Amino acid sequence: MRNLFITALTLLATSAMAIDLAPLWDFNQPTVSEQRFRAALETASGDDRLILLTQVARTQGLRENFDGARAVLQQVEPSLPTAGAEARTRYFLELGRSWASAKHAPEALTDDAKARARSAFQSALDTAKAAGLDSLAIDAVHMFAFIDTAPEQQLQSAQQALAIAQASSQPAAQRWEASVRNNVGHALHQLGRYDQALDQFRTALTLREQRGNGKAEAEATRTAWWMVAWTLRALNRGDEALAIQLRLEHEADAAAQPDPYVYEELALLFKARGDTEQAAAYEAKKMTVEK
Questions:
Q1: In angstroms, rounded to a whole number, what is the distance separating the alpha carbons of residues 291 and 88?
Q2: Cα separation of 286 and 137, whole Å?
């Protein structure tokens, strides 16, 4: 099943940005991003240097080199007492992510690792809230879902993040709303509260569609539609779900991004209709893409 808990990687800005990180990031190519950050480090000083180092650490974590991430963060530690709030928040965020994140295998999430991650994320949240860095506060809150994995806990964290986004006047925080609503919807879906989940997914979809037609947004919008269809299937509204998934199949293929999760849903939908031949065909397509 698709990993529905969205981490909103591209939401980088804050209300008191010391350095613009967005042009340096390509989350699909963390090695390239690291090269950009290290090049920027050559002329950076003060908090800018510290923030860039935290992002170098993040590139390490995205490649599952968590020891390497912590080694980079050790370069930041001596400057923390005099660093600004953004630099300190980002340090704690990346320290926490080095212990618990979407990139960690389940067996790596030991009680000790979770405790270390929780302490770091709490420090990030406290620092961000005290400084009014709403976007980073949301980032910290949503990371607790990788520690507290029960649906009830994830719903609580997602609702807390949503409250920050809705109350904030900062554009960077407001841009989190679609991702956070997705997380609320995912938790509700896991709890079997499908009608409420569908409402959240539809609102997230509307927000996605309002953002334009760039490649990244087009992909995010297709994912948002997938979540709507996924929940319609859970509500036994198979015809509606099938129409959406067939359209997503066409759009993903046209974008040269065949989606195994769409194939998986189509297989389930055709199986429910008694069309075992079509179901088997989509199961085969899913396996081919995943190889």
A1: 41
A2: 37
